[in-house]
Design brief:
homodimer, 250 residues, alpha/beta, Alpha/beta knot, 2 domains, 7-stranded parallel β-sheet, 8 strands
Chain lengths: 250, 250
């Protein structure tokens, strides 16, 4: 279904390399509908291919239009990107807020798109007036001109971040599980027994604080089951205290 | 103060163009500390300059190191970017969450950085093991390799979005103010009077609904004071009903 995507329209893009980089970024974030209005060097442009880095389909399916008006006819909502604030009465959104709006419209099976201007001077006011609102990417004020593909990257990233069900805000890789608290307690008991024996904890007054600090080091490390076993092996090894039964078991 | 920035470290970057694009993206988002570990084509690299698009200072001040270890010595926290999930016990964050953490550390005057691998195959496991956690940019699963500069763009953008006090989540451009509700009421009264007179509202049963629908059109438009004056001028013009006194006043 075409309706659940974001159309990217480049108006008078100049460099084939940038169009290729745009295609790559679009596909990274699951977008496929690329439209070109009067690309300076014609189309297709062989210079786009290397930068697409495998997103060839996006380039092959890109549609070319003689005017912005013809490129946007089927869209229900259209935002323009600009790093200037033209002297027009237009609402300006951050990419995040703009995409919130476009996504909620797309989810009701309506077509949405974003317009990007060419490398040299961005969108003309005439093109901006075809759009309902502006997207301005927050930058430092005295160096605000973004590379064309970089602007597309940020818009496509916000689209994907807000639509994908990827919920890996925080997870751990590897196949083992986090250690149980019991494993940690046994590690601490083992370590503290050896530190006691070797005299590290001989200052009676400081003992409680030292033990707490040492435990905190390992608490912060979010140890896995395997890592606890490894640490206990290290303690045994450092103390030359490996029991014959444990040697057999390993 | 150097402490309140994010250091960008590129490990074995290949293309000068990408290094230039990285410099541009860094400066767009207020970052200045670029470090290069064994850049393939040596340094300085004239191919970086055009893509930097004016961010020449970032390139001039870039420091080159023979090893990752030497490049990161002064940093207090370091995250690695990767689009693979290496078989290591490492926490993986989205750019958003990773930057939240790095920013809160930087705000306590400690130095933070992010490591990016080369174009061909990203960071080696050896480099990743020097970092406390991974940043994985959410992408579609079967086309997940981002352009090097694009990855830097996204990290730098999240840094800036979370640190800058730019609060333009929603504002309007242009110098006029939004119309007062009273101005709108007068516009509606004017329009409805004329629609009554010209017969548009002659269906008595439908009248209330029609009036409501017309009002809603203009409510949604968030009209400014000037736009209300313009619309009233349009009504007068369309009805050929321009009063001599108003002609004088305009």
């Amino acid at each position: 279904m075409d309706e659940n995507t974001l159309t990217i329209i480049l108006v008078e893009p100049q460099l084939g390399q940038n169009i290729g980089a745009v295609a790559r970024a679009m596909l990274n974030f699951g977008l496929t509908d690329l439209r070109l209005v009067r690309p300076r060097d014609g189309w297709p442009n062989p210079e786009a291919l290397p930068l697409a880095a495998g997103a060839d389909k996006i380039l092959e399916n890109a549609k070319v239009y003689p005017s912005t008006l013809e490129a946007i006819g089927d869209l229900n909502r259209l935002f323009a990107t600009s790093n200037r604030t033209p002297d027009m009465i237009k609402t300006i959104y951050t990419p995040k807020l703009a995409l919130q709006q476009l996504i909620s419209t797309a989810q009701h099976n309506q077509k949405v798109g974003v317009l990007f201007g060419g490398e040299r001077c961005g969108l003309k006011n005439e093109d901006i007036s075809l759009c309902e609102a502006l997207i301005k990417i927050p930058t430092i004020s005295n160096f605000s001109s973004l590379n064309l593909a970089h602007a597309v990257v940020l818009v496509a990233y916000e689209w994907f971040a807000q639509t994908s069900s990827t919920s890996f805000e925080f997870f751990r890789t590897g196949r083992t599980r986090l250690a149980r608290r019991e494993d940690l307690s046994m590690l601490f008991a083992h370590l503290e027994k050896e530190l006691e024996r070797t005299g590290f904890l001989r200052h009676h007054k400081k003992r409680a604080t030292m033990v707490r600090n040492i435990r905190n080091i390992f608490q912060r490390a979010h140890l896995t089951e395997q890592e606890v076993r490894t640490l206990r092996g290290i303690i045994r090894s450092l103390t030359g205290n490996q029991l014959p039964s444990q040697k057999k078991a390993s």
